[in-house]
Amino acid sequence: MSARLNPNRYFPTDATQRGIAAELFAGIEKLPIISPHGHTDPAWFAYDQPFEDAVSLLLWPDHYLLRLLYSQGMRLEMIGIAPLDGDKTGVETDRRKIWRLLAEKYYIFRGTPCRAWLDHTFLEVFGLDRPFGPATADYYYDAINEKLQQPAFRPRALFARFNIEAIATTEHSLDPLKDHAAILASGWEGRVVTTFRPDEVTDPDHELFAPSLVRLGEITGEDTASWKGYLKAIENRRAFFRAHGATATDHGHATAQTANLPAADAEALFNAVRSGKSDAAQRETFRGQMLTEMARMSVEDGMVMQIHPGCWRNHNAQLYRRHGRNVGGDMPAVGGFMGQMKPLLDRFGNRSDFTLLLFTLDETTYSRELAPLAGHYPCLKLGPAWWFHDSPEGMMRYRRQTTESAGFYNTAGFNDDTRAFFSIPARHDLARRIDCAYLAELVAQGRLPMEEAAEVARDLTYSLPKQVYKL
After folding, report:
1. Is the domain of 324 the same as that of 268?
2. What pLDDT score does 17 carry?
3. Which pLDDT band holds residue 3 (cuts at 50, 70, 90)?
4. Sign of the dihedral defined by the CA atoms of residues 104, 109, 114, 116, in that order
5. Dihedrals φ, ψ of 279, to 5°?
6. How far apart are the C-alpha atoms of 450 and 448, rounded to whole Å?
7. pLDDT for 71-120, tens place per residue?
8. φ and ψ at 195, to 5 degrees?
9. β-pair partners for 248
10. Would you tell me how many other CB atoms lie within 10 Å of the CB of residue 24?
11. What is the pTM of this model?
């Protein structure tokens, strides 16, 4: 890492296009960040306490880092992550040693977006201009920890420094949202909203499905042993989330399969999955029916609906059993939308008062299915290149494969989808640069006037995320 980041990073190597990209970027570089989908902890902003240390802040929450470290034979216990059973045998507790392990393995991130995000964070946020590695591990650890105790590095101060206008967190449907209530009660002007994520009450394969149905009934006063009561209880929770600022829902289903069953059949299916006696096909149909029910609820209450299929979650069964979710064991999977989404689209696809955002980890669907669908149905918008494809090449592939069929204005701009708060400026900087690089090609080829490219750049950066997510 040099003493400064290359000002033309990620721009085209062709001098003409690079100049165009730089000019476009200059017009949007300082725009506020709209972060409409993410997983930062609302408690940070509610209580504004200092972050603990470099390891808990920069390493543990970032499953991008965890998965590559694990791929190199580094057990999670070696970096301080204890198993679910609480067995502390072999779990490293010295965080300085953990940080040194990250420094020793930093070379494995060369060429990855993780390296770009961390370099940006080290240099631009913390002002650490020496290359990170074994020789500077202690310098980094001490400098970062010292800065984290300063008022300027508390969550609310960084929210302002990062120029964040609005950020959305994501909470499960049973969450009491006490942290969001504390934010609202504090009088702080920063805008932090929640997002409704109901997987534990809509997915019969979720490990918490059965107890969550019971708890859902307890906190809503509805009979969740009945189909109608169950739906009313979910509607109740959606209203609770809206009262705490939510404008969107999020659904982490493995596939985009939807269903539109007659009421009696849907009730019978619910009884089967609730009893625990359903088969795999019935559970998949139930998930599909619940996506359609969620679409109905979004039509009624105005919440934006997001679906994230194409991911094989917890692919590493051994790691999942030992450490649980979100530790780097998720993988892209083959997916599809055209036939799978048809039951839902037959019912709601032609409505312009309903917004449905589609994401995927299966890039083969971009030009074949997603872009044509979004380029036709009024309700559909495309989420950005997501997760494994939240990278320079992935973002550029996304633009190349979707723009000709869907255009720019059937997309939702960029969201960072991260737990790593300090990487948010780096991720948005990268996305803005890639969009400018793509637009520069269109301008250089005579396919788009410069003034229109500048307008598109601004819309992708700022206007579209605000508009699509109703922020």
Report:
1. yes
2. 98
3. low
4. positive
5. -95, 175
6. 6
7. 999 999 999 999 999 888 999 999 999 999 999 999 999 999 999 999 99
8. -130, 140
9. 304
10. 26
11. 0.96
